[in-house]
């Protein structure tokens, strides 16, 4: 199909759910209310590491309106993953629903169901917990010390979540021997949290046949179903997980949370529906953050800029439990095989337990951390070698056919195109060579420009197995329903899927409805993560739509006495090539006679993905106030290769949102844990600083359909995670361009800037 | 598959919904409550035939709590069928949602939505309706008179609903010429109504995208969807019809009722959910009854009992609108081609409009009326020819290969088997030859024994087109979900379907769940009627399950390195023939690796039925009190051939329920309309007399698997309607046996008995 043939794909059609979103009519999990519903609350530990010696719930149970209290004595003692993500083989089950041991400050130790949230909250204070403190592990160094207190009895030991991930290619020592310049540095990243608008919330209800119906704000409804069934000892057809609208997830809502198990158990005990909803504070304490990390990176370059060796050790801080650490460690380590091509790499990735809140999945996991370091050191090398940063990147950028982090050759590589196109569009050379870098209104403000690059895979890491499924059924009037398990986090994924079905089948966009978010009725789905929904489920939906189209045309061919190959189907009209007068409508071809459809038009598609990569280069202008230390990100030009774009405005929205979050990570966002006792210091949006709309830069998004992936629908690739990756190093590099100070960490605070400037002034 | 191989089919497994039924937890449409929900009520005409000259709703609209009032001026003026049943070609659209003309007493003329049922009810009294009376048509004779007032402008005219149905086979005149005995009689039937426990109820809710979600107690959710979409001008993917549990329907809940359109329109106008629920009184006035009928029947017999000619004219009273009259007339007429074989038949069937409540679909429609007359006249012939009634029936009973009412040869005819087996089991000869017929405690009470026969088709009338569909998906743990559009009227149909899936697929009954009653997610379904769900949808489910089984065994064959033909799958265990140690479980074969199922196991089956017939002979003992005229039905032995029985207790339940309703029809039930003005005289369960449990006879059900149908799952045939058909003539014939009085009508009241006895005594 040539470009001009698209009627629906590639157009920014109006989202079907737009009215219910703006009117507040759309149902989020928190909107579910049922007669007799109770409210659950969790008693949280006020110590980071301890053995519980006694819990007395008698006062709480006696409190009027309290219907049930659960402690570790009352719940199944089954170890589970916490993360229901498809597990790498090395993953360890390390969580109990409730344990007699506390591993982080704020961990749940008991749960209450009561007639109102207020009564439940009041009852929490009536639960008496006594404990015996244990020595705490509050940072990566302590965790790795030979005599460190051990958080878990399971796993490989030494506070490691999984055995170290080690990747070696080529001959690193020989590479360094060939290098003209060797750079070595330590990099660190803080603890940003995905501050989704909708706090975690779930509602559990059991019926008389012992079936659990469970509404929850999750990206992975089938994984939640599986984990609940496993831990509660139910067959999968006795657990129904439902999710309609979601107010964001950003990866963190892939986990199976403690409150979800407790909500189900409270509802079972009370034989009444129970709702549990996090406060904003709980989304910090009991939610999931990006993994804090520390990384040692040594790279060797030839004079001409060619990267010849890379040696890397990265340690991710998992917090009290494993959650997504296996995935983050694998992805974060494997990703360092690529982006900038390097024949000789030696990588060591680890994740360690500490007595801090749980790190989990968050947009661009692993990659954000690794590529932050790679791209800053690339900039340093350019500076040291006197090569323009853009030239430096073009020289080293990964290319078509190079081995991707997945171990497969890359098919569809648009990185060079993004860098080159962006450098021109941004006027990189003109800006960087501009000698006037001071703000005319305030000479203390210095401007700078930077570049960062990224690549991100869908279904593209070693050991990952994926499968996309979709069912399409056509009604008697030619309107169509797509059934999919893919969650709608708010990204517009369902709109893109409907576009794909409409385009492939040959009906209008409006005639396609989407049913989703009910594990009882939709096909199995792996979950919405890894930027893969459009790519993976879109491909499955396209397969199903193609089958229906074929069946429709076969029948139309009979009716019209034409060969099916000679027929077209566009906007619900079947036409005969070369005979425009002979067209018939879908209803005429497929519609009912005596109330019965001509045949039952339902088709299911299943897709096992290849590996696909998306690419981007971000160009950034910053203004650094040398008096206050405040960094203002003024302009961003993100240039993305996402293959075929299904819905331009939605893709642009993803990119802009990623940039906003990336700015937050890089400049202001850090969930701070007191490293002496594990207490949260800023669990709330007053003290945890996200960029607001007034903090947003001008963003001029450029989407290139540079390198379509043959595995995606019409070459579409992922876009969800990409935009959060390159923005960080681009800002950091621009700050260096502005004030000559090189930072190796995020967030870069005003205090850091002032300290950096002071140190630079004091340099000999 | 031989009989002993069945593990699940043929067993009375415990219904999955039994606990929610008995605890009251199961959700019926009336159990749906939504925030902001309004309540709708209908203003009903107090005249049977009139032109509305003025409706003033201003006082109602001003009444506190009233949110909307609709009259014929406010609703789309679109003619519709009323019955969303697959239409025969001759069917006429004759209903408006609201019209400026009233055609029966109690017809809705306006609708109110208010904050409570009470307020809505009060507002009805504030609607002022003025009308100009029109001459009324209150009976069949008036309707057919040449100068009769015409109820409708559409249709063939002469108050006919459809053109007369005429069937002629052989040479009737020659048949009569060959006859030794010619009988001629007039038969009549009253107006029984299906007094389902759950009055009609619906809830309508529109979302911001102009999509209507519609919960309603219906047997035909896809037909409701289609009719709502057509009349409201919506595509089918903008109408979602939902029905979970139902408290019965018995055929009547196939219609698309006036209140359903009005509920949808009120909700649209108010932008709030609206519920409308019939009072018991409204289920009479605005519900659907069996068609009252009058029939002239002339048959000729040879001396040896052989039936040689049949001439019949039947007129069904449709009431004010057509509804199912086309189907009833076709079925009621065509059915008279069969049951008792006759080479020479001439049949004329008609339906006429009258200004009375609407007749609709009701269990055994058309056939109940026709076979009542056939079987009574057969009894008369036996008496006149001095042949035992059982012998008479055996001589004339339709046989394998005879032409069925559908026009096709009968495959699977068990009628002779039912008659013969029953005569033995009932000790027919012994009872009938017993000279002592008086009750020992009350000599005024006389006992008698009678027989009635029936046949009933699934998917088996001329012009009927059917299609069964089902989707089966397997979860990663081997549990299974069946998605079906088949409604669950309370019959246990979903249990039977789950049994079929479990048996065919090779899993336990408990591992199969059923999802139904949501047009957005389940495959298209024709509706639950015509006794066809197990036969039609069961066949489709079996096809889908067989496909899954094949895919499971293909994969297991790979894993076990065996040929698939050599594998068995029973209760979720895959075994190798001749190698018992090598078995693997379904989970081992299909289950997830790294969280992802080995393949996506979903399959859809579609089945276009052949024609199938079920058969029965009912043997009855009655006791007639010659002083009070009360007929007591004391014992019934129903002998049914339903092919392969899927769930014996459910089948028996159908039979017992049918007998209870049949006793009501024959002896006590009649919804009486004043033939001078069209007013209802007994719209309620105080004055309309159903048999209660204490009125039930001893029933000894015998189910023969005499003649399996090759088109049904393992030979299963329908059973839903059969039991209501033969019980009526069997009672009537037994009454004659007891007191020597022959009745040609139902219900046979005590007054009728006393009159009949008096007439007999006064006979010369």
From TrEMBL, chains A, B:
Q: Which Gene3D superfamilies match?
A: Aldehyde oxidase/xanthine dehydrogenase, a/b hammerhead, Aldehyde oxidase/xanthine dehydrogenase, molybdopterin binding domain
Q: Name one GO molecular function term.
A: oxidoreductase activity
Give the superkingdom in one word. Bacteria
- Aldehyde oxidase/xanthine dehydrogenase a/b hammerhead domain: which residues? 23-135
Q: Name one Pfam family in it.
A: MoCoBD_1
Which PANTHER family does this entry report, sorted A to Z?
Answer: XANTHINE DEHYDROGENASE, XANTHINE DEHYDROGENASE SUBUNIT D-RELATED
Instruction: Please identify the protein, giving its name as recorded.
Output: Xanthine dehydrogenase family protein molybdopterin-binding subunit
Q: Which organism is it from?
A: Paracoccus methylarcula
């Amino acid at each position: 199909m040539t470009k001009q043939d698209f009627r629906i794909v590639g157009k920014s059609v109006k989202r079907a759910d737009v009215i219910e979103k703006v009117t507040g009519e759309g149902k989020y999990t928190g909107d579910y209310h049922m007669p007799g519903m109770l409210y659950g609350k969790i008693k949280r530990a006020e110590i980071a590491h301890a053995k519980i010696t006694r819990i007395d719930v008698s006062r709480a149970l006696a409190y009027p309106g309290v219907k049930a209290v659960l402690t570790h004595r009352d719940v199944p003692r089954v170890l589970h993953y916490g993360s229901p993500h498809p597990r790498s083989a090395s993953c360890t089950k390390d969580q109990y629903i409730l344990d007699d041991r506390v591993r982080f400050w704020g961990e749940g130790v008991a749960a209450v169901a009561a007639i109102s949230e207020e009564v439940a909250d009041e009852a929490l204070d009536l639960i008496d917990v006594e404990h015996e403190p244990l020595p705490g592990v509050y940072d990566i160094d302590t965790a790795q010390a030979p005599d460190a207190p051990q958080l878990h009895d399971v796993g490989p030991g030494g506070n490691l979540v999984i055995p170290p991930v080690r990747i070696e290619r080529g001959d690193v020592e020989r590479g360094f021997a060939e290098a003209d310049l060797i750079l070595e540095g330590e990099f660190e990243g803080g603890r940003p949290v995905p501050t989704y608008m909708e706090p975690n919330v779930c509602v559990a209800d059991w019926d008389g046949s012992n079936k659990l119906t469970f509404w929850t704000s999750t990206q992975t409804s089938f994984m939640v179903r599986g984990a609940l069934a496993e831990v509660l000892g139910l067959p999968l057809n006795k657990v129904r997980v439902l999710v309609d609208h979601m107010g964001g997830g950003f990866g963190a809502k892939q986990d199976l949370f403690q409150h979800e198990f407790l909500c189900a158990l409270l509802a079972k005990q009370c034989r009444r529906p129970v709702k549990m909803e996090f406060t904003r504070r709980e989304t910090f304490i009991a939610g999931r953050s990006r993994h804090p990390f520390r990384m040692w990176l040594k790279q060797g370059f030839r004079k001409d800029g060619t990267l010849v060796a890379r040696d890397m050790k990265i340690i991710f801080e998992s917090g009290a439990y494993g959650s997504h650490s296996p995935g983050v460690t694998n992805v974060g380590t494997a990703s360092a095989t690529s982006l900038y091509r390097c024949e000789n790499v030696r990588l060591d990735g680890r994740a360690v337990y500490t007595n801090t809140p749980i790190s989990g999945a968050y947009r661009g996991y692993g990659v954000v951390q690794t590529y932050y370091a790679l791209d800053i050191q690339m900039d340093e090398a350019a500076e040291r070698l006197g090569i323009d940063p853009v030239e430096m990147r073009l020289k080293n950028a990964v290319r078509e056919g190079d081995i991707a982090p997945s171990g497969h050759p890359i098919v569809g590589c648009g990185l060079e195109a993004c860098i080159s196109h962006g450098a021109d569009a941004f006027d990189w050379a003109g800006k960087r060579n501009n000698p006037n870098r001071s703000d005319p209104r305030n000479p203390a403000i210095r401007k700078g420009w930077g570049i960062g690059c990224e690549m991100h895979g869908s279904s593209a890491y070693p050991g990952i197995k994926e499968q996309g499924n979709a069912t399409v059924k056509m009604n008697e009037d030619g309107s169509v329903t797509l059934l999919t398990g893919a969650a709608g986090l708010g990204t517009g994924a369902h709109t893109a899927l409907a576009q794909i079905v409409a385009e492939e089948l040959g009906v209008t966009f409006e005639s396609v409805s989407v049913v989703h978010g009910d594990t009882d009725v939709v096909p199995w789905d792996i979950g919405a993560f890894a930027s893969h929904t459009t790519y993976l489920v879109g491909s499955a939906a396209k397969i199903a739509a193609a089958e229906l189209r074929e069946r429709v045309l076969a029948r139309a061919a009979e009716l019209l006495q034409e060969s099916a190959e000679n027929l077209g189907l566009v906007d619900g009209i079947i036409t005969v090539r070369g005979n425009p007068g002979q067209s018939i409508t879908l209803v005429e071809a497929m519609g009912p006679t005596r109330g019965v459809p001509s045949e039952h038009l339902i088709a299911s598609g299943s897709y096992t993905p290849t590996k696909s990569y998306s690419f981007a280069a971000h160009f950034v202008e910053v203004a650094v106030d040398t008096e206050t230390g405040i960094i203002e990100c003024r302009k961003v030009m993100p240039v993305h290769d996402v293959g075929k774009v299904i819905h331009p405005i939605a893709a642009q929205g993803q990119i802009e949102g990623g940039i906003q979050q990336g700015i937050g990570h890089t400049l202001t966002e850090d969930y701070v844990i007191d490293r002496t006792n594990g207490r949260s210091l800023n669990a709330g949006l007053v003290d945890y600083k996200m960029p607001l709309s007034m903090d947003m830069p001008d963003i001029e998004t450029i989407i290139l359909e540079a390198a379509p992936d043959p595995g995606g629908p019409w070459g579409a690739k992922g876009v969800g995670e990409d935009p959060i990756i390159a923005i960080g190093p681009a800002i950091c590099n621009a700050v260096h361009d502005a004030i000559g100070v090189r930072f190796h960490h995020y967030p870069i605070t005003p205090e850091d800037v002032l300290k950096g400037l002071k140190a630079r002034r004091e340099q000999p």
